[in-house]
Amino acid sequence: LTGCQTYMDIIIVLDGSNSIYPWVEVQHFLINILKKFYIGPGQIQVGVVQYGEDVVHEFHLNDYRSVKDVVAAASHIEQRGGTETRTAYGIEFARSEAFQKGGRKGAKRVMIVITDGESHDSPDLEKVIEDSEKDNVTRYAVAVSDGGEGEGINPEAFLNEIKFIASDPDDKHFFNVTDEAALKDIVDALGERIFSLEGEEGKKTLKPSNLGKEPPQTTSAAPQDGILLGAVGAYDWNGAVLKETSSGKVIPLRESYLQEFPEELKNHGAYLGYTVSSLISTKHERIYVAGAPRFNHTGKVILFSMHSNRNLTIHQALKGEQV
Fold first, then answer.
1. Residue 87 has pLDDT above 90, yes or no
2. Considering 104, 280, 287, 323, which has the largest number of Cβ atoms within 10 A of its Cβ?
């Protein structure tokens, strides 16, 4: 809409050592997270490496140019095995080689590391993470931890190691799941945090006149007098709407939303504009509808009229009753 900041190179670093079981759950996680990315020329590129004792490229950043093709490739990745978990080697391989194979100048670098055990080359981690920091690689780390009973694993040391791998702060970049099957539970949260990273990049590069903020997702309704668009990431993810007409763009003033979306709730990320529609009232007037599914964690729908002076008249607001 105004130059979305989905310009990212993402390398997924998969632990494929013998202790990972069942592999199909890792594969499902990989496919589900890939489906969340805007993959395409000028947008997100994804590469995958798998490690155990050795590290291999499963596919490079520029091998596939669509979600469909990347998902098809990911569905054929088989577990390579290995008696050792050389996580430091896997991360260094991703940093020094995988980002170079098809990596783009100016693209945000993101690494997602998934492992279920303490590494066998942990003394190397400090240097590896230091080099990743120098290369501005944002690292998300996923620990698959069942407590380590009977496996000779020190759960606390393992979790501390994975937190060390993750970028700071840990609450944004570190995930802990109880087993491979639970990986599916973090797909939405991980995708959301990566997209919020896009939003932060956008704030540095977009001019204030371009809605002032980052609109990474749009939806539309097509009434007869123009096209209504939702800009979910605008205004710190509170969201916004705008209308494209034959005579130009109508971007409502921020003040038009404040009655229903107060400033003090700005951290809640309402996602206004996630869905938009329109209808004709009994007075034969065009009424627009926009959903904000995350408003106050229960959601809100507003019905409104839009005016050429950039003001909105909100006729009704419907609040959700549960998460």
1. yes
2. 287
Q: Three-state SS for 288?
A: strand
CB 290 within 8 A of CB 276: yes
Spatial separation of the C-alpha atoms in residues 252 and 255, rounded to whole Å: 8
pLDDT in tens, 132-180: 999 999 999 999 986 554 455 678 889 999 999 999 999 899 999 988 8
Give the C-alpha separation, 261 to 254, whole Å.
Answer: 10
pLDDT confidence of residue 224: 62
User: Is 212:235 a contact under the CB 8 Å cutoff?
Assistant: yes
Contact 66, 39 (CB under 8 A): yes
Q: Which domains does the chain have, with CATH numbers?
A: 8-197 (3.40.50.410), 220-319 (no CATH)
Residues 317 and 299: beta-carbon distance below 8 Å:
no
Other Cβ atoms closer than 10 A to 308: 10
Q: What is the SS3 assignment for 97?
A: helix
Q: Strands 286-292 and 220-221: what pairing?
A: unpaired
Q: Is 202 helix (H, G, I), strand (E, B) or coil?
A: helix
Whole-angstrom distance, CA of residue 33 vs CA of residue 162:
20
Rounded Cα distance, 292 and 1, in Å: 19
Distance, CA of 306 to CA of 225 (rounded, Å)? 11
Token digits for 155?
């759960």
Over residues 246-260, the pLDDT tens digits come to: 777 888 888 888 888
- Burial (CB count <10 Å: 0-12, 13-18, 19+), residue 270: buried
Residue 226 DSSP SS3: coil
What is the Rg, in whole angstroms, of the alpha carbon atoms belonging to the chain?
22
